[in-house]
Amino acid sequence: MEDNKVIKRSEKYMNPYLAGVFLGLVLLSAYFISGRGLGASGAIKSTTVSLVKTIAPAHAEKAPYYKEYLETHPGNPLNSWLVYQILGVIVGGFLSGALAGRLKFKVEHSPNITSKKRLILALAGGILFGLGAQFGRGCTSGSALCGMAVLSLGGIMSMMAIFGTGFGLAYFFRKFWVNI
Amino acid sequence: MKPRILLAIFVIPLGLIIAAVPENKTHAFKLSAEQLLEETNAGIQYYSPEEIADLIIKKDPSIQLIDVRNVDEYSKFSLPGAINIPLTTILEEDWEGYLNQDVKINVFYSNGTLNSDKAWMITRQLGYENNYVLMGGLNYWVETIMNPESPSSTSSDEEFAKYDFRKGAGMALGGGAVISNEKKAGTAPIIPALKSKSKKKRVQGGC
Amino acid sequence: MGPLIAYDLITGSTNLLFAFLIGIGFGFVLESAGFSSSRKLVGVFYGYDTVVLKVFFTAGITGMLGLLFFSLFGWIDLDLIYINPTFLYSTLFGGVLMGAGFIIGGFCPGTSICAASIGKIDAIFFVLGIYIGVNIFNEIYPLVEGFYKAKFLGSPKLSDFLGISDGIMALVMIAMAIFAFWLGEIFEKKKKPVIY
Fold first, then answer.
1. What does CATH list as the number for B3-141+180-205?
2. How many CA atoms does the CB half-sphere of A116 hold within 13 Å?
3. Model confidence pTM above 0.80
4. Mean pLDDT of chain B
5. How far apart are alpha carbons A113 and C154 in whole angstroms?
6. How far is Cα B26 from Cα B21, in angstroms, rounded to an integer?
7. Distance CA C51, CA C32 (A)
8. CA B28 to CA B31: how far, in whole Å?
9. Scanning A96, B75, B116, C181, which has the fewest C-beta atoms within 10 Å of its C-beta?
10. How confident is the model at residue B103 (pLDDT cuts 50, 70, 90)?
């Protein structure tokens, strides 16, 4: 009975290898058209910079990071490739979710932890990821996935660091995810 | 069949093919040999000494003379405003900003045309534009601009006009056209601060 | 011919339009593959669901093979595409932080945005967290600038670094990926399926 349920659920998702090929083709078209790979954290950075520029322009002019960013990225930070691409991700994700009937407000978590705990963990993970993506000059998509496609040393290094750390720490956080 | 096996059946042969073929080192969409031959035959790369002399006298800012001879020869004499990029070092990255740009007209010169033509061919093959060659090189320059031969009395008016221009230009450049850099020791040739403005730049990306 | 933007075959605004379309494809594939579920994503670290590994590596090798073949046919100039720069310490340190963020938060930036778009509240919190993290970095930037820019190695390719051709490198990557898929499927079979 339960086994059946599992199969049914997993069937709703696309075969991972097929999805991988599609994702590879999307990545290839990004390189062919725009000469650059996919990304996500960069868009968040752009919006952050734009936000700071709007609400605290004096700070944006003074703080070294914003100064450097605005010098190297002329024009409106929101008018960037990655921002448009992320808007597309939101639309694309929504479309796929709508077609598969997965649109639903919910907090997904393991039965071992409460929703509240899950939200705190998500926030903490996000903070770490945000910091890490800045140091690593790109996130899993911008640095690791694209890095693999173009055989970039830095990208492949960050991929190994991400997954290596993930596997290394998995044991310590197992209570948050699986029944032991 | 398992999707994993199916995927492997597709990608492994593709991987083998890509590993077996030699890498595509030639840059696509740059000149083919035929195009280069055509351009060379047409001689579109040449600027005549008169044109150059005219531009030098007018102090035209759009022109950049580039001496492709070695440093010794360059320091003995050079044309006004010329910078020195010895042919042997032409592929060094430092020069890319000068050679691959769309602001100035670069004119290569050497003693004859052989080395400047080589420089032109190399840069053209790299896909750079705005590079030209001083026709006849310095030898012809000295012959025509510095010591123009007076036409015989039977020559056409055109010849005389040309002679007058050459003589005028030679005088305007006052023998200083061939500047002795030794005289003005210490004054480095003026190198314009050109930013690397390559037309086809690597796309900026990343998160 | 390619990249189209570098050859001025499309304008900057068209490029942004394509960015949006490419984003739709990106988001659609991520969601269809199940990347909008954090429990599915972290499955890779516990061995019960290796969809991340499969999608990620398949996408990587598809993109890699595509670029190499396009270059072979002269359709794209690989010298003009963006290659991630390598700043040794910063890249490694960032990777470690991201790995920790992944296992604690259950998402990465792309998947969290995708999950947020179908209403996952935890994903929205994760995105908020990224904002905070990016802001923290921007504020402490003067303190870490030295570290951030240390050991700059340029934008080397792994193949150049190892002194082999791109094609052989690609073949090695493919072999590694297929091997990883095989391992992943063995683990999946061993582990009890997790319902989520």
1. 3.40.250.10
2. 0
3. no
4. 76
5. 45
6. 14
7. 11
8. 8
9. B75
10. confident
Residue at which a domain ends, from A82, A105, A128: A105
- Quick one: A97 and A8 in the same domain? yes
Say if strands B131-134 and B105-109 run parallel, antiparallel, or are unpaired.
parallel
The CA distance from A13 to the nearest CA of chain C, in Å, is 5
Residues A82, B207 contacting (CB under 8 angstroms): yes
What is the pLDDT tens value at each position of chain C, 196 positions in all? 778 888 888 888 999 999 999 999 999 999 999 999 999 999 999 989 999 999 999 999 999 999 999 998 889 988 889 888 889 999 999 999 999 999 999 999 999 999 999 999 999 999 999 999 999 999 999 999 889 988 888 888 999 889 899 999 999 999 999 999 999 999 888 887 777 6
Is A61 in the same domain as A123?
no
Range of A175's domain? Answer: 108-180
Residues A71 and A4 in one domain: yes
Whether residues A8 and A91 fall in one domain: yes
> From CA C78, how far away is CA A31, in angstroms rounded?
9
Instruction: Report the alpha-carbon distance of residue C57 to residue C185 in Å, rounded.
Output: 14
Residues of B with CB under 8 A from a CB of A: 3-4, 6-7, 202-207
> What residues does each domain of chain B span?
3-141+180-205
Contact C95, A137 (CB under 8 A): no
Q: Which residue of B has its CA nearest to A14?
A: B3
Residue B191 has pLDDT above 50, yes or no: no
- Nearest CA distance, A58 vs chain C (angstrom): 14
Residues A5 and A88 in one domain: yes
Phi–psi pair at A37, nearest 5 degrees: -90, -175
- CB-nearest partner of C98 from A86, A95, A129: A129
Query: Is this complex scored with an ipTM above 0.90?
Result: yes
Residue of C nearest to B200 (CA): C6
